[in-house]
From TrEMBL:
Record's keyword annotation contains Hydrolase: no
Taxonomic classification: Eukaryota, Metazoa, Chordata, Craniata, Vertebrata
Domain Disease resistance R13L4/SHOC-2-like LRR: 94-177
SUPFAM superfamilies for the chain: L domain-like (SSF52058)
Protein name: Leucine rich repeat containing 28
GO cellular component, one term: cytoplasm
Entry-linked SMART domains: LRR_TYP
Keywords associated with the record: Leucine-rich repeat, Repeat
C-alpha cells in the first residue's frame, strides 16, 4: 500500500495534477510525500475520505514530539480539501495558510474544536464539520467573508458565537442535532441568510423573529424541560418559556420605562464612535475595558423593530409558531416560538410579527 501510495503521489507531482484522490486507503497518518519537493503546488483538490487519519499533520516521535512546521500550508493552490470519515482529533493551525481553499469537509471525525486560524480562509465557501464533538465554533469564523454554506449538524454545540451573524455571504446554516438552548439575537438579520436548520435541538424554544420569512427547520425542538435544569435567563409568557443568550444581563418588560445606566452609556458610545468601530483600539484601554470594546464592536443584537443596537438588556416578545401562517409547514412537530428582541418599551408595544 505504501509503494502504491508513493507511486500515485509521484505521478501526480510529475504530471502536475490538479486533483488527487486518496480515498479508501486505510491511511493512519497524513502522507508527508504530499509536502515534499515541488510539483504539488498545482494541486487544487485533495480527497482523503474514508481513511483512519487522527491528525492533519504527521507527528514524529523520538525523545520529544516534533510537529512538521507549516506543512499543510505549502499546498498554496489547494481549493478543495475533503478529510471526511476519518478519526481526526486535531486540525493544525497551518490550515489557515491555505488561502485559496474554497471547500473544506471534515465531517464524521472526532474534532472537539477548530483552530482560530480557520478565520484566515477568506475564499472559503463551504465548511462541513458535521458529526464531530464540537462544543462551540471559533469566533474568528466570522472573518470567512466568502462562506456561503456552513454545516455543523450532530455535534455538541450549546452556544453559537453572535459574531456568526456578521458573515456577509452566508446563505445556508445547518445546526441540527446539537444541544442549543438559544440562538444569537441577530440570526437571520442578514438578507443573504435564507436557510436555517436547527431540528432536534430539544432545549431550543425560541427562534429570533428575523427568521420568520426564512426557510427554517425546527422539528423536534421545544421539548418540556424544567427551567432550573438550564442556568440561563428565561422569559415566560403564559405556558411558554424561552431561554435567552448567556450574554443577556437583564430582561425588560412593558412596565420598564427607564433603561439601565450601563445600557444608556453603551448606546451613547456606540453612536458617538460608530465610524471608528472597525478598530478596537479607537479608545484607550484605560477608558474602557477590552470586553466592552468588543461588545461595542459586536453588540448582543439589534432591535427587531428599529435596529437600535442592544448591549445588556432586551425586551422580548413571543409569537408561538403554531399561531402563525407557518404552523402548517411543521404540522405540530415543534413547540417553538418566534421571539422579537426589542430595545425599549415603545418598540416592544408596537412590534407585530405579521405586519
Amino acid at each position: 500500500m505504501a509503494s502504491e501510495l508513493c507511486k500515485t503521489i509521484s505521478v501526480a507531482r510529475l504530471e502536475k495534477h490538479k486533483n488527487l484522490f486518496l480515498n479508501y486507503r486505510n491511511l493512519h497518518h497524513f502522507p508527508l510525500e504530499l509536502l515534499k519537493d515541488e510539483g504539488l503546488q498545482y494541486l487544487e483538490r485533495l480527497y482523503m475520505k474514508r481513511n483512519s487519519l487522527t491528525t492533519l499533520v504527521q507527528y514524529l516521535h523520538s525523545n520529544n514530539i516534533v510537529v512538521v512546521p507549516e506543512a499543510i500550508g505549502s499546498l498554496v493552490k489547494l481549493q478543495c480539501l475533503d478529510l471526511s470519515d476519518n478519526a481526526l482529533e486535531i486540525v493544525c493551525p497551518e490550515i489557515g495558510r491555505l488561502r485559496a481553499l474554497r471547500h473544506l469537509r471534515l465531517a464524521n471525525n472526532q474534532l472537539q474544536f477548530l483552530p482560530p486560524e480557520v478565520g484566515d480562509l477568506k475564499e472559503l465557501q463551504t465548511l462541513d464539520i458535521s458529526t464531530n464533538r464540537l462544543l462551540t465554533l471559533p469566533e474568528r469564523l466570522h472573518m470567512c467573508l466568502s462562506l456561503q454554506y456552513l454545516t455543523v449538524d450532530r455535534n455538541r454545540l450549546w452556544y453559537v458565537p453572535r459574531h456568526l451573524c456578521q458573515l456577509p455571504s452566508l446563505n445556508e446554516l445547518s445546526m441540527a442535532g446539537n444541544r442549543l438552548a438559544f440562538l444569537p439575537l441577530d440570526l437571520g438579520r442578514s438578507r443573504e441568510l435564507q436557510y436555517v436548520y436547527v431540528d432536534n435541538n430539544i432545549n431550543l424554544k425560541g427562534l429570533p423573529s428575523y427568521l420568520y420569512n426564512k426557510v427554517i427547520g425546527c422539528s423536534g425542538c421545544g421539548a418540556p424541560i424544567q427551567v432550573s435544569e438550564v442556568k440561563l435567563l428565561s422569559f415566560s409568557s403564559g405556558p411558554r418559556t424561552v431561554f435567552l443568550p448567556a450574554e443577556v444581563k437583564a430582561i425588560g418588560t412593558e412596565h420598564d420605562h427607564v433603561l439601565p445606566l450601563q445600557e444608556l452609556a453603551m448606546r451613547s458610545l456606540y453612536h458617538t464612535y460608530h465610524s471608528f468601530l472597525k478598530d478596537l483600539n479607537f479608545l484607550s484601554p484605560i477608558s474602557l475595558p477590552r470586553s466592552l470594546l468588543e461588545l461595542l464592536h459586536c453588540p448582543l443584537g439589534h432591535c427587531h423593530r428599529c435596529s437600535e443596537p442592544m448591549f445588556t438588556i432586551v425586551y422580548p416578545k413571543l409569537f408561538p409558531l403554531r399561531e402563525t401562517p407557518m404552523a402548517g409547514l411543521h404540522q405540530g412537530r415543534t413547540t417553538v416560538s418566534f421571539v422579537a428582541y426589542c430595545c425599549s418599551t415603545q418598540c416592544l408595544q408596537t412590534f407585530d410579527l405579521l405586519s
